[in-house]
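Hi, here's the filled form for the chain we discussed.

Project: internal
Contact: R.S.
Residues: 450
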Amino acid sequence: MARDFKYTFSNSDIFKRKRFADNLVNVISKSEHFRDESFVIAIDSAWGTGKTIFLEQFEQEIKLSEEELYVNLNATVIRYNAWINDDWDDAFVPIAYHLFQQFKDDIIKMGLKEELINDFKEIVYSIGKNLLEGYLNSKGITEETMGFIKKAFNRNREIEDKSMEVDFFKAYEQNTALKNKLKKILLEISKGYGHEHKLIIIIDELDRCKPTYAIQTLEVVKHFFGIENVIFILGIDMEQLSHSVSTVYGQNMDSSGYLRRFVDLIFRLPLVELDPYIRERTQMKIEDSKIVQNAIKFYNPSVRDIVKITNSIYFFYLSQMPVDNAEKRSQFRIYVYLICLKHYYPKEYKEILSDNFCRKSEISSHENNTRVVIDNKILPKEIWEKSIYGLSSGRNMKKISELIDIDSETLIGTNIDHLINIAEVKKYNLYNLTLGQYIDRKIEVMPNQN
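And the returned structure, exactly as it came back:
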């Protein structure tokens, strides 16, 4: 099902990238003084750092913003997801088809000449033929059946081709004519919008495509769309694409140099500033937000991770409010790391709570092979030694009732006082849960389910 919600800077600029978008618009506006035909800008950032969200926000800002900066840009913007089409052999076909779908109504509204409309129809016919042939090939249709289908296509268009043999030179001429027609169409459409109107084509998810398709898409942009006032913005991971180039052309290839041939300017997407994001998202006290920030930073998170983990911590924080003293803050800190651990290392998290683990530094020849070995790097040393490892020796498998002196309502033993809320256990009658189950339910914000 299609997602109706649209990211904009006004409704979701959680990573404070509006200023970067403004700078990008300024660059595009002034690029006419030094660009030759089309202009290609790369937004370089690793996968998971929020490129897609930013590009959607940028698209919506151009379409909807009433700010003078964006109005004066005088641009029509289209966003194209390369990844959903990388099962095609020809990168040109889906891009051209996508452009046709976006512009066909505008061509009619502009009253552009009949010749132009016919040219676009010719492109669509060629694309449709290629799409059908590609689909049938993927389904294993025989060549004989394919021949009948081709004849049907050609008969409808009154094209005689009795032999059905591929004429290489004719195919080349047709491809060149198709390319020139598309350039002509986009140029006329741009003029139809008004003087110095720009077409901004955003291509996203290139770093998720097959290496051959990603490279082919770049080549299509460079060779098929060298058109005045057409600006491409590519959401890419230059490092990942360099690996793709090496995969296709060999390890000795100058991958970075090859990629720079296709791009006029490269901008790095600004990194997320964790502290203001966490404080704005959660409204936590400064001391508590620092705990969250340090824990999340330990795992070198992507934007997707930051959003998911912060949301989990936020809901846990709400359920445990108030964190108003040193003891509560210590408890909160341990649970923050456990939440991160569950996100990044779910298997190890499960084994810790079931007490079926040992630390890598303590492996011996007599170690039970059924136990999971956990590298100390998955948690800071202090958290290991003062809290998590203190849960070992079977304690996590013990019932809460065994860990609490019911008469005096005090905890028995050490290293668990920061994990069990006796008032909560009593209120929701959680005595029959094991300590591991209790911890997991607190993290899932379900303390009242027995």
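Let me know if anything looks off before we file it.
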